[in-house]
Amino acid sequence: MKKMRALLLALAMLVALCSCGSKKEEPAPEVEDRDAAVVFENSSETVDVTALVKDYADQLSKTKVGFIFLHDENSTYDNNFMAAGIEACDSLGVEYILKTNIPEGQECYEAACDLADSGCNIVFADSFGHEAYMIQAAKEYTDVQFCHATGVKAHTEGLSNYHNAFASIYEARYLAGVAAGLKLNEMIDDGKITAEEAKMGYVGAYTYAEVISGYTSFYLGAKSVCPTVTVDVTFAGSGYDETAEKEGAQKLIDNGGVLISQHADSMGAPTACETAGVPNVSYNGSTIAACPNTFLVSSRINWVPYMQYMIGKTAMSEKISTDWTGNLETASVQLTDLNEAVAAAGTAEKLAEVSKKLSSGEVKVFDAATFTVNGEKVSTYLADINDWGDYTGETEAIVNGAFAESSNRSAPAFDLRIDGITLLDEFYG
Amino acid sequence: MNNNTREPLIHVVKRKALPWYKAWAIRGIAILAALIVCAVITAIVTGYNPIKVYATMLSGAFGSARRCWVTFQNTAILLIIALALTPAFKMKFWNIGGEGQALIGGLAAAACMVCLGDKLPNGLIIVLMLISGLVAGALWGLIPALFKVKWNTNETLSTLMMNYIAIQLVAYYTVVWESPKGSGKIGVINPNTMSGWLPEIGNKYLLPILVSVLITAFMYVYIKYSKHGYEIRVVGESVATAKYVGMKVNLIVIRTMLLSGALCGLAGVLLVGGINHTITTTIVNNQGFTGVLVSWLAKFNPAAMIATSLLIVFFGRGAGEISSVVGLNESFSDILTGLILFFIIGCEFFITYKVVFRKNARKEETNHD
């Protein structure tokens, strides 16, 4: 009985203590108001490196950049950022610190603060899950610029020192799709497959907008030259899982896929394709060395222009844009290493032509006239651009007859399930 | 002993108990040797000045106010887990399930934050988090204990396997609670309302440190001066003796594992509610296993565990800073940490045994007789 009473007393004290320590809840603003209050700022500005080095040498020498990477150079995803970061810093002659293998947890906040404490004026993080912790650090270190790739919250947080960046990778994927479609046409013409058998396979990572936007643009690119094409998609449930990606690719091949592409980062899918002799479109780097007989082309994001932009703006004491979306013109997205041995004849010329049309706006990747959802054309769609955690769309995304990808914010938002694409599974996490 | 037998060139003799200062001198030499080898290897690999290597390690762990706080906070969590494992180990019940017990405690806390976040007042949520975290951890300790007393199963295996069940449960709930949908991550739970976030005392690092101090004091008294502690020691020395003097061995095993699991669960609640405000399958970061090492190195003495846990965290953070500064990846810091642990664990051999060469052997024997 005495024990019981003591326990109850302790519990009561604990409740009292915790209640004192608890934060006051701020009343949630009205839904319409908070969306109306959002200011979009999405630029694709670049800086002139030679002019910067000449005119701002002094400021650049006082600039220091801290990088936070989810993995290390063994991951093609992180290596792409790391190489770009080092190249940008070297081109401008600024100091930098690299922190690798920083998980998407409190360690990211600690790493960001530690970099700020070590005198960095800019802190950059490369993984989606780092965002919340970057924001937390940005609130604390108001005179340090925090730049985050692939994030979605900069425009709704309203912090002057927190920025998101991405690139219109869907344009490069569309081009890669064109190369794939031409290859399919060649196979049809050679009598290797019938037009109805033109089925591609795609290994995704997770079922979210960035991946959906990726495979849809790839598919639409292929469809623009090969109208009968379809695609099966499977998800590895990971950004880097060699075995799962290899098995995924094998499943797609067994399922009748005659050409494979992937969002995933490991060598899993490319090696499975090389073994099976199935053409492969790669992401974030050429796999031609390991797969000379099947590697077709690769799309990648080149982060150097953004890194130079964020460093340059900081050195010039100018504001970094809330969102930044690099494109074909800024060389932020690239189609690299077309393998002539695998590609269909005339591919390079066709790619140059489509690329020009994409830049001029004559061709739009997500042109609503080119796809249907459940058999019907899409004339209006509310996309979830402002991420309040409610997963409901609030921003009209069909503008001038096309899905306006990466226009309001940098990160992709296309998450329509269009016809012609079959998801074999989607419940990985 | 027959003097005619040829003795081997080198043989190993068990020492009589060493005086404490000699034992600590050997440990000190081991740490020194570890530091020298680390410096030499870093110097060879990177061309770095060895003195600078030490300075970098120190700066990595204590270079700024924030680094000190993080070092102490990490030490606190490792210490709590090591302390939690100690009573079980003292009883010779090999609980290597600290990882799972902490993780399941964290999962229970996260469940409270996610499911009750906007339904109950914050104080009540935190109390429920604590209770459910402790209960979940205790349950994860109880199951192997029940199997042990009922069917005499091997607890090393069952506690280990419970880890994987906890990890898979967390993986499952990561999908259930993921945010944004499809990302495979839970992200920060209740980022705006902060419900279920443990209150900050002083600054955001202090709470786990204070808790670890309280638990260290409690565990010291519990093991050394309480009746329970005495029973644990007797069962650890000899189950037969314990039974002979009328102790209820099964009850003691179950009770101790409940305590061990509950304290691990508390570490999980601190990790989820107080530090990370999210849960991932790797949030405990193998400290359930490192905790075993901390506890062993301290000879199950709670006060000494403060030093051993700090040592492990210091080397981990110091080695991490070296790899960041010289631009090598995590593997290099793993190599350094591995080397350091090799020396620290290896020196225990020289504390328990001594190496005798043939020439000295005879003298040795006369001394012993």
Unreliable stretches covering 5 or more consecutive residues of chain A = 17-29
User: Termini of chain B, distance in Å?
Assistant: 10 Å
Number of helical regions of chain A: 14
Quickly give the structural class of chain A. alpha/beta
Question: Would you write up a description of this structure?
Answer:
The complex is a heterodimer of chains A (429) and B (369). Chain A is α/β, with parallel strands linked by helices and 429 residues long. Helices cover 39% and strands 17% of the residues of chain A. Chain A folds into 2 domains: 39-168 and 304-315 and 320-325, Rossmann fold (3-Layer(aba) Sandwich), CATH 3.40.50; 170-299 and 341-423, Response regulator (Rossmann fold, 3-Layer(aba) Sandwich). Chain A is built from 14 helices and 18 strands. Chain A has a 7-stranded parallel sheet with strand order 1-12-6-5-4-2-3, sandwiched between helices. In chain A, strands 13-11-10-9-7-8-18 form a 7-stranded mixed sheet, with helices on both faces. In chain A, strands 14-15 form a two-stranded antiparallel sheet. In chain A, helix 6 packs parallel to helix 7 (131-140), helix 9 (169-189) runs parallel beside helix 10 and helix 11 (242-254) packs parallel to helix 12. In chain A, 54% of the residues are buried. The model of chain A is unreliable at 17-29 (pLDDT under 50). Chain B has 369 residues and is an all-alpha fold. Chain B has a domain at 86-293. Helices cover 74% and strands 3% of the residues of chain B. Chain B is built from 14 helices and 2 strands; from the N terminus they run βαααααααααααααβα. Chain B has helices at residues 20-46, 50-62, 65-90, 98-116, 122-151, 155-177, 206-225, 227-237, 239-244, 249-276, 287-297, 302-325, 330-352, 358-368; strands at residues 10-14, 353-357. A two-stranded antiparallel ribbon of chain B has the order 1-2. In chain B, helix 3 (65-90) runs antiparallel to helix 10, helix 4 (98-116) runs parallel beside helix 6 and helix 4 packs across helix 11. Chain B is globular. Chain B starts with 9 loop residues before the first strand and ends with a helix. The relative contact order of chain B is 0.19. Chains A and B meet through helix 1, strand 3 and helix 6 of A and helix 3, helix 5 and helix 6 of B.
